[in-house]
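re: ur question from yesterday

yeah so i grabbed the chain u mentioned. its 186 aa long if i counted rite. heres the sequnce exactly as i have it in my notes:
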Amino acid sequence: MASTSEIGSPKPRVLIVDNEELARNTFSKNLRNLGYEVKTAPGAAKARHLLKSTVFDVALLDVVLTGGPNGLYLAAWLDKVYPDLPIVLMSDKARKVMIAEAMTLGVIEFLEKPVGLRELDLALKRAIARTAPPMNKVDPNTDESERQIIKGALDRNHWKLQQSAEELGYSVSTLKRRMKRYGLRK
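ran it thru and got these structure tokens back, copy pasting raw so excuse formatting
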């Protein structure tokens, strides 16, 4: 779902949601220098407003957001309302429980702050690459192969979604969408 800039070259669009202005500005400047198109929001309300007018390729959320819902809540909302939008979550107070919860909310990557630019760039690229292809562009050969790969992972993991998603490199929500797409049920 890459966007097109004014001169016609594709630039991935990133939505950065972080309550710290310095962090937003630093991430924004550095990602623009790497060729991303960036919009920023200090919290969930502004992020929702931006999502109404812009199609993003990936969302980068901080867990701690002041003056409203936190990043986990926003991730859950994004997963419901924009299920094809990959989410990268970051925090300087990451705990294993938080990371596990985030992965069930459609979060593809979890980064611990401070985040290096190379690490951030790679995480965004991996997140964008993991998004599902458009549902209306079906290639029967590719789709049948993907169906068989997903079915094999589900069978090997006794239909446990978290383990199957990890094996496939998907978020749980992406795996659920693809299972629905291919009519896979236990």
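noticed a couple things. Residues 140-156 form the longest helix (17 residues). also The longest strand covers residues 107-112.
anyway ttyl
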